[in-house]
Every structure is written in structure tokens, then in C-alpha cells.
Design brief:
The chain is α+β, with helices and mostly antiparallel strands. It contains 3 helices and 7 strands; from the N terminus they run βααββββββα. The chain has a single domain (about 5-125), classed as Alpha-D-Glucose-1,6-Bisphosphate, Chain A, domain 4. Pfam families: START_2.
Length: about 130
């Protein structure tokens, strides 16, 4: 079964440079995204409630975006990306998440999980 791609855009009151630190470094990801985050080269280990998931870093553009691919889903085109968009006119900052759900029924649940994670990020950085 083919996974379903979705995007979630969330306005966030923080500087792009600070946000990038929180989406790109294991120690800062650990503060809001997962219980524990480690990296060895391009392989990142994310731990939630004692369960480890491994992902390969596939794109990293300083100050803008980071993209990983779960190692367990290497047979498909899925990935997850966190991107920082800065509106040139208003200077509003938006965090854009691109991810894949197992099927159409799981899209809303997946979006809710991301919204909860981003709320934790807001709390962590005081945004």
C-alpha cells in the first residue's frame, strides 16, 4: 500500500536561526521531538517511550530545512522534513512539516502528533 504524503504549516514566533538549531541538532531535538536523540554520521537515533527508530539524514540546508528518511521504509519514497519559511514582506516565520502517513485514515492522526510536537517546541523556546 502506498503511503499518503501530507504537509502541515504552523506559524511560530521565533527567529529562523534559533529554530534551525532546534530542528537540526540532536541535543535540541531531544528537548521537544523525541525522548532521546543521537546521531552517528548521517544516521540519527530517535527514541520514544523506549522504542528506537533510525533515520538517515538525506538533506540539510543551513537555516532552512532538514530531511530524514526512516531506515525501515527504505523501499518507498517517503521521508519527513522540517522546513523554516520566512515571509519576505511580513517577516512571519512558518514551520512546514512534510511527512507520510501509512494511509489516508492516518493523516489527521499524524498531523495531530506533529501539532503536539510543535506545541512542545513552542513551549521549549518560549514562542
Amino acid at each position: 500500500m502506498e503511503k499518503v504524503k501530507f504537509e502541515l504549516e504552523v506559524p511560530i514566533h521565533a527567529s529562523p536561526n534559533m529554530l534551525y538549531q532546534y530542528i537540526s541538532t540532536p541535543s535540541n531535538l531531544q528537548e521537544w521531538f523525541a525522548d532521546k536523540v543521537n546521531s552517528r554520521g548521517k544516521i540519527y537515533s530517535f527514541v520514544w517511550e523506549g522504542e528506537e527508530e533510525l533515520a538517515e539524514l538525506i538533506t540539510k540546508k543551513a537555516g532552512e530545512r532538514i530531511r530524514w528518511k526512516w531506515l525501515e521504509s527504505e523501499d518507498d519514497e517517503s521521508y519527513f522534513e522540517i522546513r523554516i519559511d520566512l515571509d519576505a514582506l511580513t517577516k512571519d516565520v512558518t514551520l512546514v512539516v512534510t511527512d507520510y502517513a501509512e494511509d489516508a485514515d492516518e493523516v489527521e492522526e499524524s498531523k495531530q502528533l506533529w501539532e503536539n510536537q510543535i506545541e512542545e517546541l513552542r513551549h521549549t523556546i518560549g514562542a
